[in-house]
Amino acid sequence: MNVTVRLAQQPEADALLGRSPLAVLVGMLLDQQVPMEWAFSGPYTIAHRMGGDDLDAHAIAAQDPEAFAALLSGKPAVHRYPGSMAKRIQQLCAYLVHEYDGDAEALWRDAGSGKELLRRLQALPGYGKQKAQILTALLGKQYGVTPDGWREAAGAYGDDGSRRSVADITGPETLAEVRAFKQEAKAAAKAAGPQGKTGTKSGQKAKKTT
């Protein structure tokens, strides 16, 4: 895998995201309750602090949990909630080690359909349907992972020309457009109130996601 992306808006971090499937999975996992570019800079920060130029699922899964949490907590912190995210990243890596021998790209390398890809991503620790759909869209739009039906599996995030998620970010301009879309969606959800479709607890939780 070797593509050019602008998800983190930081050259070194984006270079890692362009060549490392595991970095993409970790960045997507971190993409909640923090700005998108902060989340997708996280994999590079983790790799650098671990003394390498890439992430290794075996090495991360084998880390002492307290030491790994401390690594994420160092300034600047990898996430607003570095302790809980450290646990989630280790759970993700342990799953990859157990199910795919640590090979993150195996998740989509032989996926025969968009539905199969979505199913595999949704099975990852820390991934719900929405996160799995956004990653399906990101892989299809920017990484050339396009099994039959990938756009349908990704839902609205797979729409051509949309500005709904990180899947649509190709630079500062599209980042601003995606951020504006999210702000509008939050405002609409707030206006809908407790009786609206987004007034449920799950909707309120979704509104916190950046």
Shape: globular
Radius of gyration: 17 Å
End-to-end C-alpha gap: 27 Å
Q: Number of helical segments?
A: 12
Q: How many E strands?
A: 0
Please estimate the helix content: 55-70%
Structural class: mainly alpha
Low-confidence stretches: 197-210
Strand content: under 5%
Quick check: average pLDDT?
Answer: 92
SSE series: HHHHHHHHHHHH
Please tell me about this protein's structure.
This protein is globular. Helices cover 60% and strands 0% of the residues. It is an all-alpha fold. It starts with 10 loop residues before the first helix and ends with a helix.
Summary, kept brief:
The chain has about 210 residues and is mainly α. It has helices at about 10-20, 20-30, 35-50, 55-60, 65-75, 80-100, 105-110, 115-120, 130-140, 150-155, 170-190, 200-205. Helix 1 (about 10-20) packs across helix 3 (about 35-50), helix 2 packs across helix 3 (about 35-50) and helix 8 packs across helix 9.
